[in-house]
Protein 1
Amino acid sequence: MVELLPLSDIAPQTVEALLDDAFGADRFGRTAYRIRKGTDAIPALSFALVEAGALVGTIQCWPVAHRAADGAETPLVMVGPVAVRPDVQRGGYGRTLMAHMLAAAETKADGALMMIGDPEYYGRFFGFDADATGAWDLPGPFEKRRLLVRAINGHGLPIAAGMIGPR
């Protein structure tokens, strides 16, 4: 039986071990970690997927912001990492986690969603695209086509140039 639980129900060291297995222990140097540095995941949008008592996947969302050159700040929710245990990847667990998070975000997100991800996958299945992010910048290297957004819960997308960082 598969259960979706609040991520806070899972021991932090268990989550970290899954993230190491899915992304490698060197994951902390990635740009995504710089963007959300010093913040805590949003409990209402972060979930665990448990099967037969074992953690098989997680999704975390983070409070970040777009800061324009004129000082305007727009709250965003950064999606990710979406992590699935390597031995069960391609079993639909990631899609289940994303769908559950998106359903929660429809009423609980306090900003549009943004992520660094595969546009073919996240666009096709979840409605993310890079149309509004061309002038955005991140605190580290990234591929422009992989900086994705999705309006949700009535929150619009900033299109002006600006830096994404923690809030």
Protein 2
Amino acid sequence: MFEEASEVFDNMFKSSFPLTFIVFIPAVLILVSPLPAEAAHEFTVYRMQQYDLQGQPYGTRNAILNTEARTVEAEVLSRRCVIMRLADFSYDKYQKALRQSAGAVVITLPKNMSAMPQDIVQQFMELEPEMLATETIVPVYFAMEDDELLSIYTQTLTSSSSQGTLSAAEVLLHTATANGFQMVTSGAQSKAISDWAITSLEGRLAGVGGEDLPTIVMVAHYDSFGVAPWLSYGADSNGSGVSMLLELARLFSKLYTYKRTHAGYNLLFFVSGGGKFNYQGTKRWLEDNLDHTDSSLLQDNVAFVLCLDTLGNGDSMHLHVSKPPKEGTPQYSLLKELEMVVSSQYPEVKFSMVHKKINLADDMLAWEHERFGIRRLPAFTLSHLPSHRLAQRYSIMDVRSVSPSSRHGAGEPPAGPHVDVKKLSRNTKVVAEALARVIYNLTEKGAPGDLQIFTEQMV
């Protein structure tokens, strides 16, 4: 169902605005063994985010690493590289390393995340924003575990734990004379960029029947986000939203090809950048279209803006609004058509409207539709998440899927957020059918709620 729809995107543009950001290049960490017979082991590490947004610094401020390895069980962590496994990670242990001025922190992640208990994954997702908000000069890296790295961790853990039985004098002597694994970063270092260019895509399908046609705008931001950029896949948030938008563009481009089904609505598709950074790409796009041009579809008759965000799983769909739509408006029509399609065709789905006012005092907006609401455009966001605060929107744990055979229990869901392709396909069908009913005014024409526009022949 999800085919490429690039043919409908006839406009591309780049916009730039002040945003200090760091370009991250995966570094190579070299572990040098104290034993002559042991060879050095190299493995890739991924640095924690570092950026400044609206004058507020986030993440680690340093990248250089050349120090001896320890685990958090050691008595003395100062100027040591502290290795932590995700399975044993806690914020208290992490803070202990920072308080003792560790030389660096390396957090190792299992290759098979689905093997991790759900509570550990959930705890780490909730801690990621706190880790980023705690500005530190201690370099923080992440690495994927392999057999050699696990062996090094086990040896380091044994050495670190034994220090707990030593006297204070023995600990100092051991610290001065011990020959542990030396951890050294090599390769290109990260460079700061103060003027980051954000690329967004815009495409449109022109309606037929007059000049002042209403316009429906469909929006999805394409960014992924997590504590480490190179490990941030953003499969559900917001790869699922972009996939849905592209599929909607493909489906409606077919309808708009034929004279009989060419509707009296303009359809505007917008894939935005900078979504995870307070929707900066959308902000600039609105400024370009509303403040810096004499003619724009956004300045004319906008029926509504539908933002698609995190729709790749779950049996719930929530329409997040800043103002409840008034009866008789196109926004109200979409709300009712979504309710009708769900109740008539997909009764397993629970649909609801969530009302939350825009809080301009907050540093970060909750949903993308609030960018449009600030400019007095009628907008809402559709998501399977009931709240914008859920940690999976900003996590390196947001991956596409895992195979059933890799799950740690029969019938159990995989740990962490993931994308269920069947549910993403179903949710796309719900949105497509509801939009079609609005565009072709099917309810007022007496069409039954279970009428399907996008049949097998259509898709």
Protein 3
Amino acid sequence: MASSIQILLLSSLLFISLSNAQTSFRPKALVLPVSKDPSTLQYLTKINQRTPLVPVSLVVDIGGQFLWVDCENNYVSSSYRPARCGSAQCSLARASGCGDCYNGPKPGCNNNTCGVSPDNSITRTATGGEIAEDVVSVASTDGSNPGRAVTVSRFIFSCAPTFLLEGLASGVMGMAGLGRTRIGFPSQFASAFSFNRKFAICLTSSTSANGVIFFGNGPYNLLPNIDASQSLTYTPLFINPVSTASAYSQGEPSAEYFIGVKSIKIGDTVVQLNTSLLSINKEGYGGTKISSVNPYTVMETSIYKAVTEAFISQAAARNITRVASVAPFDVCFSSENVGSTRVGPSVPYIYLVLQSESVAWTMTGSNSMVYVNDNVLCLGLVDGGSNPRTSIVIGGHQIEDNLLQFDLATSRLGFSSTLLGRQTTCANFNFTSSP
């Protein structure tokens, strides 16, 4: 039997869905561009928000809880509505407390409103912020091109003060949270337009061309006429029972996406490591998550040492010479004996073995190695210390030119491994509108 709270939330969602999508055109999917900022290595997207609409640049956080934007600096909108205490919006946002603001009323500062903790997950800083609704407009898609813009008239988000932008790329106004919450992007878009609660992300390694995020079902077509959704292998997503955000309430689960890595192989060799670190314990420590805010994969010290030693040994067997470290990387090589292949530098492959030996996420040279100059390339892994919150954080470089589909309803991840082997990249979505 569903509890009365769940029924209230579902009816609230339905109410918000109906009021959100007042349009006869019902998109099957939505699309957003994603660029890579060369100076910070952050992944950025743009939405249109407010009345009149304003382009808003945001850092993409795959595991972020919700949309937050700076409301302190020139937030002007005739359609801004603060969420009143006790409202369905506060309930959906799991907002705690009820506050007054004596410098208002203005966006981010109103009496009798509920608040959450917007989180800059790059700097690990969180603060208090008012929950509100405003208009959000994004492009629909048929999977091949962007189509007409569609509007969610009451998109729930959090205001934040300007200081929370510190550490984010120039020109950014907030962060786009794609995490597993009722007010994350995937749930709100699915609710507004009645499509499946899923999204797919394809980050590009290029700093001059856009990658792509899809909300809703495929196809996910990339030039030259390749439906990347056909390349997916599936593995379960796990919920960490303890929040991994910078600030959270007791009993709140993590909004981030965890997968069940069982072992790691370098080439044919199984890396010897403490496998208990690969599970999430009851305090919420351990496990493997996917992150777009870490530029490179971060591993707990003992895992990092075991993986890098196995990689160095196999590279040496190929006459690949180790050279001095280049920060932030410890393990670097001369490019002299490293051949070039369609899937990146010719180095030993790294396999993350998932629910069975036959299901593995393959990291070829394009995702494992980073060229720091013409003569040196480094293994793009970073030592995360001896007691990190999460044992393995799969970072941005390791997911570039991979299609990842997060299905929140069935709690599974579809992953392609590198698309370079299929002779396409994440920069190959055709962002010119269809005729």
